[in-house]
Design goal:
This protein has 599 residues and is an alpha+beta fold. It folds into three domains: 138 residues, Galactose-binding domain-like (Jelly Rolls, Sandwich), CATH 2.60.120.260; 93 residues, Immunoglobulin-like, CATH 2.60.40; 300 residues, TIM Barrel (Alpha-Beta Barrel), CATH 3.20.20. It is built from ten helices and 32 strands. Helix 4 packs parallel to helix 6 and helix 8 runs parallel beside helix 9. The chain is globular.
C-alpha cells in the first residue's frame, strides 16, 4: 500500500492518460482475447468514470475493458521487481499483462498492485489490460438491487434508478492513477508510524517491514534539518525504532508541520532501498465528552463530501481538490468525512499539508443484515477486507483522526420499510456485525477512535459501540418537512436523550436540498432561504449541548445521484455550493458563523 515514488533506488511510470476502451455487455472479452487488443475501440481518459465520458454508457454498470499496447518498460529496470498498481477501480478488476492474468481485486476506492516481472517483454512494447465490472449486487459493499426493496434509489422511500441502496451515483471505471513502478529485490514493503508527545518532546515510533533478507538499515527524521536518526536491525523482516524530537513542531490545524521520514536498507555501505514519507507529530484521543488533538479539545466544522464532478465523475481531479480546499478554508471549515468511501491518496496528502481533519470511512453505506447467515457473513468479510486495506493505506496520515466503519446501517423504521417481516434477531445481528468492525478497527490501529454513523430511527444500542457518536438527522426535511420549528423540537428532544451516553457527539449529516437561485418569502422547501434557515437552526440547537463536538453539513457541494422523484435532474441538491462550486446563501451563513463564533 506504500504510494510509489521515484528516487535513486526506485522508479515509476504513470500510465494515466488516454487508453483504448470497449464495453463488454456479453462478457466475452476474456475468451475472445480482448486482453491483447480491442476491435474498434474508443478512447477514454484514465482516471475517470466512463459514465460521465460517454452518453451511451451513462447508465452502463456491466463489464468493460481498458487497454494500452504501447507500454515500454525501461531497460534500466531489469533486475528489479516491476509492479503494476491501480489506485481504484469500481467495483471488480482483473489485471492482464501481455495476455496473462496477473491478479484481481474486489471492492472499489482502494489501491491494489501485482508483480508483473515475469510477464514483461524487454526491449519491446507491452500490452496492459484492465477488465472492470460494476454490477450492483445485494451482497456487495455497498449493495444494490436488494430483492426485498427493489433498491432505495435517492431516497429512503425508494424507487431510484439505477437500483442502488445509496444516495449517490454508482460511477464505474478506473478512478485513480495506473502506475508501473519498480523496487529492488530486497525492499521496504510497509511502514507504520505512531507519534506521542511528552512535554515539548515528540516521540516517533516506527515499524518497518521489508521483503528480503537485509539485516541493517537507517531511519532519519528531517525537518528544517536532520533532527533525529537511528539504526535499524531487521529480524524476520521487521525492525523498530523510537526517535525523540526535542522541541518538536507539532502538527495541528493551524500549523500542519510535516517532517520527512527517510528509511533505508543497507548492505554493508551500499544503500539497497530508500523510502520517504511525510509525517506529522500529533496525538488524538477521546476524554469524556471531548475529542482532543494534542491534548486540547477540538470542535469539528465541516461537511460530508463526495468525489464528484462534471466529466471526471469520481475520477481523480487534482485541480478540483485544490479548489475545494480553498472553498472549505473560505467558509471556515476544518474537517470533513470521506462519505461514503475512501478518497484518493492524493487528497489525503493534501489534508496533511493543509491541516484538515479527516474522518476516514469505508464504503459500508446502507448496510443491511437480512438474508441467510452466509449472506451476512459475505458482507462482513468484505467490510473487514476494506477496513484492513484502508487502515494499511492511511494509517500514517496525521490528518486522519478517526475510522468510520459504516454509514447509516439499516435499522429501526428503515429496516422495517425494506422488509416488513424483519427477523426478531435483526438488531442483535446488526449489533454483532458492527461490533466486530469496531473491534477490528481498534485492533488494526489503537491510536485512533472508531465510529459508525447512525441512521435516523436506528437502534440506540448500535450508537453505543462507537468511541465518538456520529448521527445523521433530517428533522425539518425528511421529517416535519417545511416545519423548521417542529423539527427543532424533535432535535432538542433527541439530543437530550443522547446525553446519557456521556460520549462526544458529531452531527455528521443534516441539511436540505436547495435549487440555486430559488427564493421565497416565507422560506419554503427547495429554496436557498429554507436551506439557510434549517442549517442555522441546527447550529443554534447543538451549540447549547456541550457534548456536541462537531457539525458536518450534508453536503459540501451538489452531487450526482440516481434518478428518482426526490432527485431533480438526478441531483442531490443539499450542497451549500453548487456542483460547479458556486456558493448558495448557506455558504455565506457558514462563512460568517464559523469564522467569527467558531460554532
Amino acid at each position: 500500500m506504500l504510494y510509489p515514488q521515484q528516487n535513486d533506488r526506485r522508479n515509476l511510470l504513470n500510465l494515466s492518460g488516454f487508453w483504448d476502451f470497449k464495453l463488454d455487455p456479453d462478457e466475452i472479452g476474456a475468451s475472445d482475447g480482448w486482453s491483447m487488443g480491442l476491435d474498434a475501440p474508443r478512447t477514454i481518459a484514465v482516471p475517470g468514470s466512463w459514465n460521465e465520458q460517454f452518453e451511451d454508457a451513462y447508465h452502463y454498470l456491466g463489464m468493460a475493458w481498458y487497454l494500452r499496447d504501447d507500454v515500454y518498460v525501461p531497460s534500466a529496470w531489469q533486475g528489479q521487481r516491476v509492479m503494476l498498481r491501480v489506485g481504484s477501480v469500481n467495483y471488480y478488476a482483473q489485471l492482464w499483462a501481455n495476455g496473462q492474468i496477473v491478479g484481481e481485486h474486489v471492492g472499489g476506492h482502494l489501491p491494489f498492485a501485482f508483480d508483473i516481472t515475469d510477464h514483461i517483454k524487454w526491449g519491446e512494447a507491452n500490452t496492459i489490460a484492465v477488465q472492470v465490472e460494476n454490477h450492483l449486487q445485494p451482497n456487495r459493499i455497498p449493495a444494490g438491487n436488494l430483492p426485498s426493496a427493489g433498491g432505495l434509489g435517492g431516497s429512503p422511500l425508494g424507487g431510484g434508478y439505477p437500483s442502488a441502496t445509496f444516495d449517490f451515483y454508482p460511477f464505474a471505471g478506473i478512478h485513480r492513477p495506473v502506475i508501473l513502478y519498480s523496487v529492488p529485490q530486497a525492499h521496504i514493503e510497509d511502514v507504520t508510524v505512531v507519534t506521542e508527545i511528552e512535554g515539548t518532546t515528540g516521540i516517533v515510533s516506527v515499524t518497518a517491514q521489508q521483503v528480503g533478507d537485509i539485516a541493517r538499515g537507517t531511519i532519519s527524521l528531517v525537518g528544517d534539518s536532520v533532527v533525529a536518526t537511528a539504526e535499524l536491525s531487521f529480524a524476520d523482516g521487521m525492525a523498530q525504532a523510537r526517535l525523540q524530537v526535542p522541541n518538536a513542531n507539532l502538527w495541528s490545524m493551524d500549523s500542519p508541520y510535516l517532517y520527512d521520514l527517510v528509511i533505508t536498507l543497507q548492505d554493508g555501505g551500499l544503500v539497497v532501498d530508500r523510502y520517504s514519507l511525510e509525517i506529522g507529530i500529533r496525538t488524538i484521543a477521546v476524554r469524556g465528552t471531548q475529542l482532543l488533538l494534542n491534548g486540547e479539545p477540538v470542535y469539528l466544522k465541516g461537511f460530508g463530501r463526495h468525489e464528484d464532478f462534471y466529466a471526471s465523475g469520481r475520477g481523480l481531479n487534482q485541480p478540483l481538490i485544490v479548489k475545494d480546499y480553498s472553498l472549505m478554508k473560505w467558509v471556515g471549515a476544518n474537517s470533513y468525512r470521506t462519505s461514503h468511501y475512501p478518497y484518493s491518496e492524493e487528497e489525503m496528502r493534501m489534508a496533511d499539508r493543509e491541516g484538515m481533519l479527516i474522518i476516514d470511512e469505508i464504503p459500508a453505506v446502507s448496510l443491511n443484515f437480512f438474508g441467510s447467515e452466509n449472506d451476512v457473513a459475505t458482507r462482513l468479510a468484505m467490510c473487514k477486507q476494506q477496513l484492513e486495506e484502508l487502515v494499511v493505506r492511511d494509517k500514517n496520515h496525521p490528518s486522519v483522526i478517526m475510522w468510520s466503519v459504516a454509514n447509516e446501517p439499516f435499522g429501526g423504521m428503515i429496516a422495517r420499510m425494506i422488509n416488513p417481516n424483519i427477523p426478531e434477531n435483526y438488531n442483535e445481528t446488526g449489533h454483532n456485525f458492527l461490533g466486530q468492525l469496531i473491534d477490528l478497527a481498534h485492533h488494526l490501529d489503537a491510536t485512533r477512535p472508531a465510529t459508525l454513523v447512525g441512521i435516523m430511527g436506528g437502534p440506540a444500542e448500535w450508537l453505543d459501540l462507537a468511541d465518538v457518536i456520529l448521527i445523521n438527522r433530517y428533522y425539518g426535511w425528511y421529517m416535519q418537512t417545511g416545519r423548521i420549528h417542529e423539527g427543532e423540537k424533535g432535535l432538542e428532544q433527541e439530543l437530550d436523550s443522547l446525553a446519557e451516553f456521556n460520549k462526544p457527539l458529531i452531527m455528521s449529516e443534516f441539511g436540505a436540498d436547495a435549487m440555486a437561485g430559488m427564493h421565497s418569502i416565507p422560506a419554503q422547501v427547495f429554496t436557498e432561504d429554507y436551506q439557510r434557515d434549517l442549517i442555522k437552526m441546527y447550529l443554534d440547537v447543538t451549540a447549547k449541548h456541550d457534548f456536541v463536538i462537531g457539525m458536518h453539513i450534508w453536503n459540501f457541494a451538489d452531487f450526482q445521484a440516481t434518478q428518482s422523484i426526490s432527485r431533480v435532474g438526478g441531483m442531490n441538491l443539499k450542497g451549500v455550493f453548487t456542483r460547479a462550486r458556486q456558493p448558495k446563501m448557506a455558504a455565506y451563513l457558514l462563512r460568517e458563523r464559523w469564522n467569527s463564533q467558531g460554532q
